[in-house]
Amino acid sequence: MGSTHKSLLLHTEVRWLSRGKVLTRLFELRSEILLLLTDIDEEKSKLFCDDEWPSRLAYMADIFDRLNILNLSLQGSNTNMFYASDKVNAFVRKLDLFISQVSKNDLSAFETLNTFWKNNEIQPNSNIITDISEHLQLLKSNILQYFPEDNSEMKWIINPFEDDYIKNIPEGILAKELFIDLTSDSTLKTAFKTKNITNFWLDVKQEYSALSTQALQFLIPFVSTYLCENTFSHLLYTKNKYRSRLNVENNLRLKVSNLEPDIDVIVRSKQHQSSH
């Protein structure tokens, strides 16, 4: 039928990043699927014959595509809780925008659904509009339930030089004095602009131990399963069916670490075997 796709995408519950693509592919191949279901399951084929079910499918493809984008933005080895919190808060604000636009029958935020209705000259369906609005509200509530923390008191960790955050320093007078010393150091202020946040607090750990320890408690914890999934991928590649008895612990440490060993120094520190 001239479709650009040759097959449907498979879906599994453990791969949420693929769900949006699965729904998009299902929508794009709806004509081919209708022909298939007409022969094997006439009852289900009726779902593709009217405009309502494809419209709902188009919306789900759009919203899961946006969730995929959010999930991907949270991946990476250097992601911290403040970065993730900003991304989630931005998505919640977008949901508020979508809810406002949907209430005005404006579905421009959902490209697949909007294009489907325009191309087929479909008038906005009040039932679908209501369901979309309720779903967006529910999605927002669920996200806020999983990410309820307010990190405003910890903003001094992200940029201690930006504002007077001394009132938010949780420790006693010593930590507050250290914070004044740190924020008054123009050299550190310049260095902060060129360094990763975590690396900056690691670098000042010796001189500003109390502040650094407090900051690293919030920066070091994993905020996603990215590192676990990355390690598991390396495990599958390293311990394949041809090396099923291989002890991969040391190999995985080398594979997932970003530390580069200084081979020359290591070699020089070893005693060479004298010739006989």
UniProtKB/TrEMBL annotation:
Domain HAT C-terminal dimerisation: 193-254
Protein name (Swiss-Prot/TrEMBL): HAT C-terminal dimerisation domain-containing protein
Record-linked PANTHER family: EPM2A-INTERACTING PROTEIN 1, LOW QUALITY PROTEIN: ZINC FINGER BED DOMAIN-CONTAINING PROTEIN 5-LIKE
Any one Pfam family match given in the protein's UniProt record, by short name: Dimer_Tnp_hAT
Gene Ontology terms for molecular function: protein dimerization activity
